[in-house]
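Hi C.,

You asked whether I'd gotten around to modeling the 470-residue construct. I have! Everything is below, sequence then structure, no commentary in between.
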Amino acid sequence: MKRIAIIGGGISGLSAAYTIEEKRRSGTPVEYVLFESKPRLGGVLVTERVDGCLVEAGPDSFLTEKPWAADLCTRLGLGDQLIGSNDAARKTYILVKNKLVVMPDGLMFMVPTKIMPTVLSPLFSVRTKLRMAREWFHPPHKASADETVAEMVERHYGPEMVDMLADPLLSGVYGGEATQLSVRAVLPRFADMESKHGSLGRAMLSARKKMAAAPKAPARPLFTSLKNGMQQMTDALVANLDPNALKTSVPVELLVRELEGWTVSAGYQSDQFDAVIIATPTPAAASVLQSADENLSAELRSIQYSSSVTVTLGYDDKVRRALPPGFGFLVPRSAGRRMLAATFVHNKFPHRAPADRAIIRCFLGGARDEQILQSSEEEIVQIVRDELEQIINLRSEPLFSRVYKWRSAMAQYSVGHLERLQRIEALRQNLPGLALAGNGYTGIGVPDCVRSGTEAASKILAEMGIWSAA
């Protein structure tokens, strides 16, 4: 009987455990133990019901185009529970000079693909619009070394595009800064388009034409979630695992590589395993691997994380009718606010609130505002209410509020991240029976974490000779 330890009970660790559980149920001689330092499993996927509304503490959805999360839900029997975002109402604003300006039509991430909506938009200055026109003649360029997203975007469109779009968009996804994040790790498609086409606009237009020429497939929503919230996924995972294999409130303190496997020390007990999957943030992975390989530990510790705070406010029908249409707004750093973005949840996912309720979800923190974690929940709610009053003239008292703090939750893929991953993989190969999973490596979204945990488990099972690597 082969034994596998899984360290970390977030979505990555649970996905790894479920992959092994499927093999165990089919008769494969394998067992696992999952260690989680906190009292609950599921990590940042936390859903609450408040005043008839569904409130997400962490991610509220995932990108539909990344299939791994939806595929897992289907395997768990949740296929009929998947819901799409209300894209007919999709409209996003940018805060410019204390006013919300809608992002122009045809803007794909930060690349304009339609001329007239961009030219007519008050979002950009004349200078930036001229840069956009010249960008169509940008020659192919392959950077000799990794660079930041800001450097690449500024080369094409100028600094205003970095401030107005690149930085706010990346803050929302990574909690990071365009001046720090690696373009090769965060936007590999853009780096590839620049090397082949030069102009990002021409490359996007070419891709759009190819898609238009392909056989028509049913339009898919941009975001996918679950009817009862994202925690429905982790609850289903836990329900499908062996309850005797789940150890909560049991932090792993040390891993020791032995001749025939690993010793896992957790609390006052140690146990022997043939293999270990570490599905924690990389600083925690670095700590437990310190005695096994100092170099690997150092590389893992060098991956930085940022923290985030989400604030959900519930309002009545009067506020709902007064809010702007659309999904919400982004706040550039230059606007001088603490808020990074806000989502009008009742528009994005109408299933989340009754018809007479409005849900506004606000985001704070990120790489530049770690100190927000030191503020009390009351202080944070007041900050958000003050800024909502200034931005959308919202003065009403909320019916309810919820504040969630996520310390060191989002990995920062800084310049050189891909090279760091190569070094980590080379060092990992010197430690047979070890796999790494989580958001610190090749993607921070829920689908990426599902893929990461599944692939880690598959790799270990293949090494043991009990599952084909294919």
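If it helps when you're writing up: The CA atoms of residues 71 and 249 lie 30 Å apart.

Thanks,
B.
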